[in-house]
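Severity: low
Component: inverse-folding endpoint
Summary: output formatting inconsistent between runs
Steps to reproduce: submit the following structure tokens with default settings.
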């Protein structure tokens, strides 16, 4: 049970976003419903989470489009006969910045979830998360 809550929590916020409850795909909706049931979210909490997820989804889509555009520009630059090192450096820096913004968005979604939970719900959430969740793979004993 604890592991399931952790998996659901991580899945929920790795997706980092979402349209309103009604617009989510079936698999994501099932995960969210399971999390809501496990944490015993009340209707007010569900509504707040749905609003936050809708806003996050819009921002995530915007950032993903920007990332893809930059990635395409970098790919075109690299394929040139003589790529401009300054241009590739600028593009890779901008790609890194956008990835950082995506991570910030995901982090803020988790912080928001925690802010609307009651103490008992926070305990349930924390019990289900591995102690090193979010740590770099080498710190979890895996490969980088």
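Observed output (run 2 of 3):
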């Amino acid at each position: 049970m604890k592991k399931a809550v952790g998996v659901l929590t991580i899945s929920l916020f790795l997706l980092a976003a979402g349209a309103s409850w009604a617009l989510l795909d079936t698999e994501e909706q099932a995960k969210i419903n399971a999390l809501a049931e496990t944490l015993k979210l009340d209707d007010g909490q569900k509504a707040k989470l749905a609003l936050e997820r809708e806003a996050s989804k819009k921002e995530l889509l915007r950032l993903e489009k920007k990332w893809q555009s930059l990635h395409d520009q970098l790919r075109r630059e690299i394929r040139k006969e003589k790529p401009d090192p300054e241009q590739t450096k600028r593009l890779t820096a901008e790609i890194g910045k956008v990835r950082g913004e995506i991570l910030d968005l995901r982090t803020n979604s988790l912080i928001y979830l925690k802010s609307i939970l009651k103490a008992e719900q926070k305990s349930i959430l924390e019990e289900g998360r591995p102690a090193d969740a979010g740590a770099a793979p080498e710190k979890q004993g895996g490969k980088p």
